Amino acid sequence: MSTMTMTASSIPGGLASPSGSSHSHASKRLTNRMTNRYSVNAMYSLAAEQDVELEDELARAQKRLRDLKSRISSQSKKNFVLERDVRYLDSRIALLIQNRMAADEKREVAETLEEIDEDSGLWPDERKMNQYANLFFLLQSEPRHVASLCRLVSLTEIDTLLQTVMFTLYGNQYEQREEHLLLTMFQSVLSAQFETTTEFGSLLRANTPVSRMMTTYTRRGPGQSYLKSVLADRINSLIEHKDLNLEINPLKVYEQMIQQIEEDTGTLPPSLPRGVPPEVAAANADVQAIIVPRLTMLMEIANTFLATIMESMDTVPYGIRWICKQIRSLTRRKYPDASDASICSLIGGFFFLRFINPAIVTPQAYMLVDGVPAKHPRRTLTLIAKMLQNLANKPSYAKEQYMMSLNPFVENNKVRMNQFLNALCEVGDFYESLELDQYMALSKKDLQINITLNELYNTHSLLMQHMEVLSPNEKHHLRILLDDLGAAPGQVPRKENRSIELPLYSRWETPIQDLSTALMSDSVTQNDINYMEAKSIFVQLLRSMPQLADKRPIDLPGLAERAATSKDPVLVRRGIKVQALLSELESAGVVDASDQYKIIQDEVAAEMVHLGNAKEKVVLETRSLEAVYKTICDHNNYLRSQLEQYKAYLQNVRLTSSKEKGSAGGVGVVTVNGKEKKQVKNQVLGPYRFTHSQFEKEGIIMESNVPDNRRVNIYFNITSPTPGTFIIALHFKGREKPILEMDLKIDDLLEKQKDQQAMLDLEYVQLNVPKVLALFNKLFSKRR
């Protein structure tokens, strides 16, 4: 065994005891926990994975899976950053559209859109890098500090901090140690939230940094994978029925009904006036006749969604179930008299309100569907989400009385729902395995995070702001590290915000020469250690020599001898080592050569069967995650496309405003990316010609009313007479004038997209708004 080091900070008090007991108490409990043979066996298994690169099929499959998980984690972070940028630009562009943005605000947006220049950057010196390495090791391994910070920051600061916490500090979403440390942080945050909340009804419901944390956690790779596997098929089968109208709000049904009557007959009878109050609409017999069958159908659809979700319980990510478990246990502790139904409503408030329902209401944002669902299916999905929320939570019909008509769905399923929510909480704790992982982490030489300069400096700045609360004692490790670092640097320009591979290690280390000694106690003997190490080596040998893996019974001495006399130095070392261990165990009476070492032979055989099953699971998980990775990459492309549209729009606005200030001779001076260029006034670009089939193939045409036999003669001409304005002309071959011509402003298209209106109606054809925007961007953004 290689020499290992143990740090005082590696076994945090907040880890094993969220209430924050003393370090010595935690250490004592740790020793008690790690007094079984399983822990020693797990330690050797972890050590073997870390020290040796096996080359059998399982090892290769595991490596592929690890690489895939790493890519998903990295891509998830990129998407989180892009989503934050898109949200920010959405709000700024909205002001831009209304011509209310000041010049300095335009510059701010422009800077946000600048590309990152990887060749420049403000780099910390070696001393600072070491200090940051110490600080972030402490933050990662003692989650209570991060938990306290997340409670202290404002809502405007939380998104940037969450980026660092969720996708950098604990960014490897499939690495057990990091995931468990992140969940430990959640427990601290939730505990504090329960302590400070005065009313049961307001628990976890307000839009706070804590609720934002919980929502962000569900958007990570495992949560996205679950949503896609469980909801995508169900939602896609529903939205196929574009014309299925299941509206049950009597006022809306009444308005739709009289509109249809007017279209059919040309007039409205006096008995059906416009603008009636809700109660009059609800009392109308025809409205009631329309609504009744819709209620039945809605409840049938909601039941299929509910059944699908309930049947998927075993695939709900462990972390989400563990958070449900903490909500239940914390509620029982703080409110011992709370009913089971009340507790379940809090669990449902997290699982459905923060996780399931947003994906049902806006499936396109979760990449569960292609494009925005049509109007009627979109409304149906909203109603389904409301029904599930009323079922999971305490129903409230104060604002939407018409939802009371769906109460039978709630009454019929309430018992089932509470059973499901309670069953969600039935997962084991991870403290014992996490503490073992903590030991193993200390022997890793490659413990590191990928972090940008601005993440580094922002976290440093927030810690300094709240230092007195986080670490009031000058002798605390966090305080010592912050005092050494001093004031935080300011944020660097976006183009200089480079990424750093930051190694993590602690400055408080005590060498431990032999890990076995550290794990030994009264009930774990040296014989136990030797037995588990021998078993681990035999498994490694069989994996390294697959031609022997299927032979039964396993000839353990022969296997050791074959390894010891092979030409592979790694196998030779292992063979000699396990021969010595077998001899020691036989001398101690633990194993017996006369029965061919049956006890250890059986355990090695069982382990090989387990590994064979593990390979199948690894392959299946890899296939599933490949689909998730593709979805995340597609979403990344979509977000980048949105940013490109914003760039083009901003550039057009800058060109337009520059031209307005230009010379009378028709030539203005335009600033593009910091460089001045001359621009001819009213430069017309185009026309660019596209056939009907081209637009169909590229998905720009969503629906077409043009007869099939005439489509070959239809084409489109697109021109841009001025920046930000476009003309789409629909032509028929042989005719000089267009059949139809439409003037468009980019503002209108962006607003349509912002309001999730995916369709642009040209009478004969309906075009896809995001794809039209992308086409305009491709044709014109780089030609002005």
UniProtKB/TrEMBL annotation:
InterPro entries given in the database record: RasGAP_C (IPR000593), RasGAP_CS (IPR023152), RasGAP_dom (IPR001936), Rho_GTPase_activation_prot (IPR008936)
Native source organism of the sequence: Kwoniella dejecticola CBS 10117
Protein name (database record): Ras-GAP domain-containing protein
GO CC annotations, alphabetized: cell cortex
Location of the region described as Disordered in the Swiss-Prot/TrEMBL record: 1-27
Residue stretches making up the Ras-GAP domain: 177-393
GO molecular function terms listed in the Swiss-Prot or TrEMBL record: GTPase activator activity
Coiled coil location: 44-78
Keyword Acetylation attached: no
Key words of the record: Coiled coil
Lineage per the UniProt record: Eukaryota, Fungi, Dikarya, Basidiomycota, Agaricomycotina
